[in-house]
Write a structure and sequence with these properties.
By secondary structure, the protein is α/β, with parallel strands linked by helices. Helices cover 23% and strands 33% of the residues. Helix 1 packs parallel to helix 9.
């Protein structure tokens, strides 16, 4: 098999994240091809070899999978990279993700453990309370677009006029913003040249409250009157209601959504969302689980895994806006949350006051450094790190407390599998594990792991 060779084969299975294992009979070997569905017959070009494995770029789907029994629900599928599996029945998606988790975790876990399946999201579509849309064009020098990147592309952007991962309110807002800047002839930011004005549209909508925060992210390279846009947005007939419209200025070279300066064009710079009977104030960049209803299933599972907390001190590390801490606080002696994003910590403190919770303490700082300064000693530790898992310098400090139980929540199962090696070497045993499908139609899934000290 050579680089550039064109091959055909059937995707036997899809491994995390989105790695289609294609068997090529003529070569009697498997090739990794992304962006496919189990059972599809595909044509692909071999484009690289990595650690002895051949990888290919999908060129064409020759035959649909027997699993594809549903019609696409949006206008830009399958070109869009936002979601992959909407033509598969939801039950089949969950089966596929369960197989992915078991193949990784059965190898990572020492000894026997109980796997309790992939719990479904209460909402399969329209579940996302946050979406980052990008400005760009669908093809080189094409008209301005606003939406999601084409599958496998870092440049081409498809207009997501009818995205089904979000509430219809978000689609209306997206089209209103796009049409406004199309009429003005405004430029979008070009990542290679570092020139242009429009960067992102960050939308956040409370699933339970219907409150919407609109965040327009631009550079300072051009200037426009945004008052007519504010009026047009407020005139939209939405099911929810806009509570704030912000203009976020970002002149950084990297393609990330961040703020050098934030201007409030109208309303406020936060919105409220409710989860398990608690109310949370959420700001533009503070972390909150993107699937509110799925997060309730997730946190109920965490509560179940921790068990009786009466008289116990809990450390909630990587605590975000303090959702887990406040869910656990009513039955715990004390919960200490540590989070590096100061804005999220301020929101967590305010949320605790709003919810009448007095036994939560939130500290802003790097977990690696904060643990050295804490006087409290935990009885239970909850870990909910970012996608890349726990820094290898921080993990030994966490394990040195020697608590009886650790509950680890992971949004990237390969990071959990890597961290389990050190955790198990420190004398912990995986007792049970479950997943919650927080990200229906996509490659991602949330995994909860309960560990007991031997």
């Amino acid at each position: 098999m050579k680089k550039g060779q064109i091959c055909e084969g059937v995707i036997q299975r899809v491994d995390f994240p989105n790695k289609g294992m294609v068997y090529v009979p003529e070569e009697d070997r498997y090739v990794i091809v992304k962006n496919g569905i189990p059972g599809q017959k595909v044509r692909f070009a071999v484009n690289k070899f990595k650690k002895g494995n051949a990888e290919g770029r999908l060129l064409e789907v020759l035959e649909q999978s027997p699993l594809e029994t549903r019609e696409p629900v949006c206008g830009i599928f399958p070109a869009c990279g936002g979601c992959m599996y909407q033509t598969m029945p939801y039950e089949e998606q969950r089966k596929m993700k369960e197989g992915q988790i078991r193949r990784i975790m059965d190898e990572a876990v020492e000894g026997e453990y109980l796997f309790q399946g992939v719990k479904p999201s209460p909402k399969e579509f329209g579940y996302r309370n946050k979406m980052e849309f990008s400005f760009g064009d669908e093809y080189k020098d094409g008209p301005l677009s606003l939406g999601l990147h084409k599958k496998g592309s870092t440049y081409d952007v498809l207009t997501a006029a009818d995205c089904k991962l979000v509430h219809e309110d978000m689609n209306q807002i997206l089209m209103c913003v796009l049409e406004y800047f199309q009429k003005l002839g405004a430029s979008y930011y070009r990542k290679m040249q570092h020139t242009g004005y429009l960067r992102h549209l960050l939308l956040r909508r409370g699933d339970t409250t219907g409150e919407i925060l609109v965040n327009l992210v631009t550079t300072t390279q051009e200037s426009y009157d945004l008052e007519p846009l504010v009026s047009a947005l407020l005139d939209l007939k939405l099911e929810g209601r806009i509570v704030g419209i912000l203009h976020i200025l970002n002149d950084s070279l990297s393609d990330v959504v961040k703020s050098d300066e934030t201007k409030i064009l109208w309303g406020q710079d936060y919105f409220y969302e409710k989860l398990l009977g608690l109310e949370f104030k959420i700001t533009p960049f503070s972390f909150f689980q993107p699937n509110t209803r799925g997060a309730e299933v997730l946190y109920e599972t965490v509560r179940e895994y921790i068990g009786d907390l009466h008289g116990l001190t809990v450390f909630d590390l990587f605590s975000g806006t303090g959702t887990i801490a406040q869910v656990l606080a009513p039955v715990a002696k004390q919960v200490v949350g540590v989070e590096i994003v100061e804005e999220a910590v301020e929101a967590a403190r305010e949320n605790a006051r709003r919810n009448g919770i007095s036994n939560c303490k939130f500290i802003a700082g790097d977990v690696f450094k904060v643990l050295d300064e804490l006087e409290e000693k935990p009885d239970v530790i909850v870990l909910d790190p970012p996608r890349d898992g726990i820094h290898p310098k921080a993990l030994p400090k966490i394990l040195s407390y020697g608590v009886d139980r650790i509950v680890y929540i992971s949004c990237k199962m390969t990071s959990l599998a890597r961290d389990l090696e050190m955790i198990q070497a420190a004398g912990y045993q995986v007792e049970k594990m479950a997943a919650v499908d927080q990200f229906c139609e996509t490659v991602h899934c949330e995994v909860i792991c309960s560990l007991m000290r031997e």
